[in-house]
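does this look right to u?? guanosine-5'-triphosphate version
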Amino acid sequence: MPAKIERMLAAPKGAVIGVDFPRGYAASHDEGLTLAPKGVRTLEERVAEAINLAQALNIDVVYSEGVKLTKITPATLIGGGVVERIAALVAELKLEVVFVDAPLSPRQQRELEVELNTKVIDRTGVILDIFAARARTKAGQLQVEVAQLVYQQSRLVRLWTHLERQRGGTGKAGGPGERQLDIDKSLLKTRLARVRAELREVQQTRGLQRMARQKADVPTVALVGYTNAGKSTLFNKMVDAGTLMADALFATLDPLMRKLELPGGLEVVLVDTVGFIADLPHELVEAFKATLEEVVMADLLLQVHDVSNPEMDAQAADVRNVLGQIGAADKRTIHVYNKIDKADGLLVPRNGVGVSAMSGQGIDTLLEAIRTHLQAGWETVTVEVAASDGRRLAWLHAHGDVTEQHLVDETWTLVVKLRASDLAAWRALA
Ligand SMILES: Nc1nc2c(ncn2[C@@H]2O[C@H](COP(=O)(O)OP(=O)(O)OP(=O)(O)O)[C@@H](O)[C@H]2O)c(=O)[nH]1
Ligand SMILES: [Mg+2]
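got this back:
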């Protein structure tokens, strides 16, 4: 908790080190590596993504570098020459944190911290922090906390083994360092057991909450897609295009959720999500899914594709796969092909909408498509309401999409689109 508050107050200055592993490099369990990056993407792309991740944690990235490893240095992962150069940079630029975009073993993390003389964070730790900041539901937060505790626990245990080895079999147990580690370990264990129990409890009541939400009037539209596809840029453009509804809950607690009225009067809750990440360490898959709970509850998905990315099709397949795993494969989905400003002459597939979240091109068409999807099955009726009947007028505007209105002789004639269930309610009311 204190770490989070600190982060909100000041953006620490940091460096980002992207890493390209030697070809065919296999995961070594002993060093705590869970996944060897596939090496499909260029080092440049990896560094760009790493900068993105660091910025998501509010790190002020003042230096970045891509390192091509020809061999692994067991103690520090990265070779001594590079470590020396970065140590000089840390001192010169007064860097508060160095993000090494690779899974580091606890030992490597510690050695690097000593040699660089600053805080070092690794890929798994950074992704976990991002998930922690973005998990919205209680269950999601608990799921992420479990993953964080397991991560910390493995660090402690490994660190402890390492220290023990250093002490070199004197046979004496219980130095002060070891005692502290024992306390930390037992605290973590207790906390982990508590969080797991709480998670089980929450998961049992979760079904009920979801049902309650589904009954809520305002439909939820969720943006999903790979990291860097442009979800957040599109989110902001859409918020600008609509009218933000004052809603203290969404506005202050959750920067990734907005309640707004789209042009034409349709109210929606728009949800941004944490992007899919290539080479996600496998122990984080469950935590990642937990950040997607809003997606499971959404009425409509906008799957955002980056048309300027050569990996677009492979990414789309990954996204569909995970959506299937969380039970959201059959959701109504609009495929949004973003960044058309960067792809000349591209043919947008017929089932999709081409947009540029940057320039705003295509946003109108997208908003219209959202409306059509959400209002499929709605009925259009023409009704007359006395101008003095504020209650009925307010009801219609709140529940329906009023497309035309005329006032003649103190009587409003309104053309309104209504859900079938709302139409029944209106008839009962009228
Ligand atoms: N040229 C161009 N760039 C865009 C467009 N939309 C977004 N970008 C850029 O793409 C990068 C990523 O955009 P974001 O909106 O942060 O992507 P995201 O999908 O939210 O990424 P995550 O939050 O990491 O999942 C930024 O540098 C944007 O400026 C677009 O329509 N055209
Ligand atoms: Mg985003």
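Residues 1-7, 27-39, 162-173, 248-253 have pLDDT under 50 and may be disordered. idk if thats expected tbh
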